[in-house]
Amino acid sequence: MRGRQVAAPMLCGAVLCGAMTGGCHRANGGVAGIAVKERLQPQPVRVGPSVVGVELSDTAGKPVSHAAIIVEADMTHPGMSPVFADAKEIAAGSYSATINLNMGGDWVVLLHIKLADGRKIERQMDVKGVQTN
Amino acid sequence: MSNSPSPNDDLEDDLTDDFVESVPFDLLLVPVVGRLLKWRHSRTVLGIPLLIVSLAMILHGLFGPTISPKNLATVLTWVHFRGALVLVILVAGNFFCMACPFMVARNAMRRFIRPRFNWPRGLRNKWAAVVMFALILFAYELFGLWSSPWLTAWIIAGYFLAVLVVDGLFKHATFCKYVCPLGQFNFIASTVSPLEVEVRDQQVCTGCHTKDCIRGRRDPRSDLVLVQRGCELALFLPAKAGNMDCTFCLDCVHACPHDNIGILSRLPASELMTDPRRSGVGYFSRRKDIAALALVFCFGALMNAFGMVSPAYTVESRLGHLLHIQSQASILGLLFIAFLVVEPAILLGGAAWVTRSCAQVNRAWLPLMLRYAYALVPLGFGMWLAHYGFHFFSGLYTIVPVTQNALASLGWPILGEPRWMLVGLPKYVVEPLEFGFLLLGLAGSLLIVWRLAEEDAGKRRIRAFLPWAVVCVGLFAASIWLMTQPMDMRATMMAG
């Protein structure tokens, strides 16, 4: 009985300690040797079409071509429809996609990048306060 | 054929009335469902799946994706749980309190820890819970809780901790009755539910001497041994009126030796049309704390929806410039005071003053305000339904890809690749439902106001009805306006 009385608070404590240490946020996933530059235009971002530009380069600054990039935009409120678009390579190492941010508020834009050699990169852009027209 | 009423017609009317009054639908008499609910362990069995889901939400919220639409904690809490809760209250009753996962943890704890203290007398009211309810609404806007799986998980974990601490120290269902803000929301909302835990036959109770429904059933060999607890929320069933403070735990059903308690149908919101002395509650019209709860419930519904539309940010921005305030919390605090305190005081105070002046109602100003405050509950509930129903229906299927993703990230892709394009019902289905809920709320509130005005003012009932009807229609118009505004969901209110 005494063992049970001790075990319950200890279990609660262990769960809470574990939870407290787990509050870190996940960093953007990257691949060594590949630099990713992303931008969203126009600024400030308004409801409607926005252009996501992505530039990929290696350590020598050479553009990285033939990557497949999927752009995903989610509202920060759950339960809303996500928006997807495939980015096209418009110049060597330079990619562009148009996404339709269909609601005002905070958005998260995710870049799912798959390099030609199969390696994957994930990037996240926080887009605060998309304004209604 | 004569048209004049005959004694037989009167008798038939009486019989019809008796029939309508004496044979309501009783959920406990429905095959299978009734047996399941009457089973002594039904509450635990219903609560265990929700407990497991709650623990999964905490873990996923703390360790899973940080993006809100991809996390079980945020998707289930802010899309599915809230929506399902108000819909179940609308079509049935307070079944979410019945299946409360926190009570499973609390009951398990009480197998080892017996609480020793009584809740302090000065706190035996709803004031603390009302303040906490308002604070949750405030924190929801200030911290953008919907956008943070981590904070959402901590709220759930904190809730478990609070239940265990409060009910570990204090006897009876202290947490449910005096502390739980979610429970208070359910209590006040379920006053419009169509089902109520009620005695089937008052005469059986009149002849009952053991009062097991409140005292609990004792072992026949020893009166000190409790074999089934009675109502922990101090509701004595023969004198219970309405759903206030009833968690649908069914302890009374299990304790009653005469099988005289059912889950009976009734006219939704009918308990708000009268003001009887309610066991464990007292008179609604004398309970300022419960009236305050009703007002925070109603005006909080508007405030909560206001925080999700574009004009909210314009108002905040202008208020900030006008008052030279940069602090987001301060601006939001001012808005909350304006919406939850000043606005109700002006609207209800004004309506009460007009009612007293024009209809010569023989009630003091404050009791009159308190009495009619409850009439706004259906309107508020309509707004909660419209708002939460919108998120629930428009994001109905989002739980599928989020669960697929959660399992896949654990290395068990048994449900396949996440189908992120699964969202919910289209706008042309959801929008009419929203407006339907608002209309339903307005109809309910007007009906209650009319009944109260009839009772208060007799021949001058229209004069007593009109001021309150104006308040109701005004709030309804505000709700419609809110629902037609472009959505703008920001975790940072002052941005832009």
Structural notes for this entry:
- The complex is a heterodimer of chains A (133) and B (496).
- Chain A has 133 residues and is an alpha+beta fold.
- Chain A has a single domain (34-130), classed as Macroglobulin (MG2) domain (Immunoglobulin-like, Sandwich).
- Helix content of chain A is 15%, strand content 50%.
- Chain A has one helix and seven strands, in the order H-E-E-E-E-E-E-E.
- Residues 1-27 of chain A have low confidence and may be disordered.
- Chain B is mainly alpha-helical.
- Chain B has two domains: 18-265, no CATH class; 287-496, no CATH class.
- Chain B has helices spanning 7-22, 33-38, 42-63, 72-91, 95-98, 101-109, 127-142, 149-169, 174-179, 181-189, 202-206, 212-215, 251-255, 288-306, 310-323, 328-359, 365-373, 377-394, 399-409, 427-457, 461-483; strands spanning 195-199, 217-219, 222-228, 261-265, 488-489.
- In chain B, the strands form two sheets. Chain B has a two-stranded antiparallel sheet with strand order 1-4. A two-stranded antiparallel sheet of chain B has the order 2-3.
- In chain B, a hairpin with a 2-residue loop joins strand 2 and strand 3 (222-228).
- In chain B, helix 18 (377-394) runs antiparallel to helix 20 (427-457).
- Residues 1-9 of chain B have low confidence and may be disordered.
- The A-B interface holds A 1, 4-5, 8, 12, 15-16, 19, 22-23, 25-26, 44, 47, 72, 74-82, 84, 103-106, 108, 110, 124, 128-129, 131-132 and B 58, 62-63, 65-71, 74-75, 78-79, 109, 112-113, 144, 146-147, 150, 153-154, 157, 161, 164, 308, 310, 313, 391-392, 394-395, 398, 420-421, 423-424, 486-492, 495-496.
